[in-house]
């Protein structure tokens, strides 16, 4: 398996992965021709040195997993860098085979390379299996997160 930066040609496969669960189906728009909003977002992510959208591909080159890694510079921790993992998805045919763990371990190692002192992520409380998965990998529910949806 190969983990690499996503290319625009991967975008349809990435959006399909994002939409392939009970929560993703409610918010993603999977069509033959993706809405322009996805292309604009990809271009912004791809041009930002603090964002890394990656895919994992099978030996045949098919996209089987994805995640986005963001590096947040801030003043606390003496000007520390925080790494944020988002949108972790694995193709349904490859789940429970270590792909998700490999993606997260890659993200942790990449975060160390970029000088981050902490790696964080959020997952919806409805995703009970995801919570157990992240705990198994050493993540601790040390903070209470809150969100305010603006639209």
Give the gist of this structure:
The protein has helices at 11-19, 24-27, 36-47, 76-79, 99-113, 128-136, and strands at 2-5, 51-57, 63-73, 81-90, 118-121.
SSE layout:
Elements: E1 2-5, H1 11-19, H2 24-27, H3 36-47, E2 51-57, E3 63-73, H4 76-79, E4 81-90, H5 99-113, E5 118-121, H6 128-136
Parallel strand pairs: 4-5
Antiparallel strand pairs: 1-2, 2-3, 3-4
Word description of this protein:
With 151 residues, this protein is of the alpha+beta class. The chain has helices spanning 11-19, 24-27, 36-47, 76-79, 99-113, 128-136; strands spanning 2-5, 51-57, 63-73, 81-90, 118-121. It is globular and about 45 Å long. The termini are far apart. The mean pLDDT is 90.
Could you please say which CATH topology applies here? Aminopeptidase
What's the assembly state of these chains?
Answer: single chain
- CATH class categorisation: Alpha Beta
Under the CATH scheme, the architecture is 3-Layer(aba) Sandwich
Helix content: 25-40%
Shape: globular
Give Rg in angstroms.
16 Å
The tally of helices reads 6
The largest beta-sheet arranges its strands as 1-2-3-4-5
CATH superfamily: Gcn5-related N-acetyltransferase (GNAT)
Spans of at least 5 consecutive residues whose pLDDT stays below 50 are none
Largest sheet: 5 strands, mixed
Order of helices and strands: EHHHEEHEHEH
What attributes does this structure have?
151 residues; alpha+beta; Aminopeptidase; 5-stranded mixed β-sheet
């Amino acid at each position: 398996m190969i983990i690499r930066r996503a290319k625009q040609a991967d975008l349809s496969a990435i959006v399909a992965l994002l939409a392939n669960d009970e929560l993703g189906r409610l918010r993603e728009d999977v069509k033959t021709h993706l809405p322009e909003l996805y292309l604009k977002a990809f271009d912004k992510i791809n041009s930002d040195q603090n964002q890394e959208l990656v895919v994992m591909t099978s030996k045949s080159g098919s996209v089987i997993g994805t995640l986005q890694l963001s590096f947040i510079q801030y003043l606390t921790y003496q000007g520390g860098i925080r790494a944020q993992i988002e949108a972790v998805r694995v193709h349904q045919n490859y789940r429970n085979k270590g792909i998700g763990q490999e993606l997260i371990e890659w993200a942790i190692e990449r975060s160390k390379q970029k000088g981050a002192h902490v790696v964080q992520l959020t997952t919806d409380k409805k995703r009970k299996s995801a919570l157990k998965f992240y705990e198994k990998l050493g993540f601790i529910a040390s903070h209470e997160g809150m969100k305010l949806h603006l639209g």
